[in-house]
Structure formats: structure tokens, C-alpha cells
Amino acid sequence: MYILFGNEIVDSEEIRSIIENESPFRVDKDLSKGSKREDTIAYQISIDVEALNNIIKEEYDISEMENEDLFDEYMTLTDEIGVDLEELMPEGAILNVRSYKWDNSDDRIKAVVAITHEELGEMKLMDITKRLLTQVD
């Protein structure tokens, strides 16, 4: 799907490929149409819990953590790693990442990422992300 991105046209499949090949995230679903905007790229993404455990082990003993604390740490860390995706995006891109679920069957943390041109603004981007969160499992 082609997206209007500032003065350029961007292929959402190229962005998907960049995310999957240059970050620890897997793109599970393209939500760009669900954003109901022609200037926003959006995906449901996920990250393997084991990858997060490797990072958490540097600061905490995971075996001593309560499940609730571990869940909070997974969600926070997923959002933090997601922010780093901005470095991989086209110039002028802003993004918002929100984790929302620990999928125990796949042992992955699921999140939504919305990407748009900086001209749209952070507030509008947050609204789009909230709308997308209502559309995912």
C-alpha cells in the first residue's frame, strides 16, 4: 500500500521489510487501512519475550520477579525498543508505539506502531494510535 508521506510516496511493504530485517520486531499485520488515513502507516508488531528477557537479565533476576512486575517490565521495554524504530524510518517520520498484550501462546509481546510525517503532529499521531488499539485483538 502506498502512503502519502510529506511530499513523498512511501510503500508500506518497504517499511515492513525494514522493521522485520533491522529490528527485533515481527510485523504481524498491516493496519494502515485501519488508520483511515492516507498519510499514516500502521502495523501490529510483536517481539519475542526471550529477546526481552536477555535485556532484563542485565538488571534483574527474572526468577525473583513477580508475574505482574515482569509483565510491566515487558510492556515498558517493548515501548522503549519501539521508539528506536524511528531511526530506521524515512526522514521527517514520527512514530508512536504502544504495547498492549502478552500473548502467552506465542510468548510474544504485541504492540501497535503508527508512523506518519512530522507535519501531522504528535497529538494527531496519539489519537490515531488510540484508534488502532481498539481494532486489535
Descriptive notes:
β5 (93-103) and β6 (108-117) form a beta hairpin. α2 (49-56) crosses α3 (67-83). The protein has helices at residues 12-22, 49-56, 67-83, 122-133; strands at residues 2-5, 8-11, 25-30, 40-48, 93-103, 108-117. Helix content is 35%, strand content 32%. The chain has 4 helices and 6 strands. The chain has 137 residues and is α+β, with helices and mostly antiparallel strands. It is elongated. It has a 4-stranded antiparallel beta sheet with strand order 3-4-6-5. The chain has a two-stranded antiparallel ribbon with strand order 1-2.
Keywords for this entry:
137 residues; alpha+beta; single chain; 4-stranded antiparallel β-sheet
Radius of gyration: 15 Å
Listing every helix as H and every strand as E from the N terminus to the C terminus, the arrangement reads EEHEEHHEEH
The neighbouring-strand order within the major sheet is 3-4-6-5
Average pLDDT confidence is 92
What is the β-strand count? 6
Q: Report how far apart the termini are.
A: 22 Å
**Poorly predicted residue ranges:** none
- In helices, the fraction of residues equals 25-40%
Binned strand content: 25-35%
Sum up the overall morphology in one term: elongated
Tally of contiguous helical segments: 4
The biggest beta sheet reads:
4 strands, antiparallel
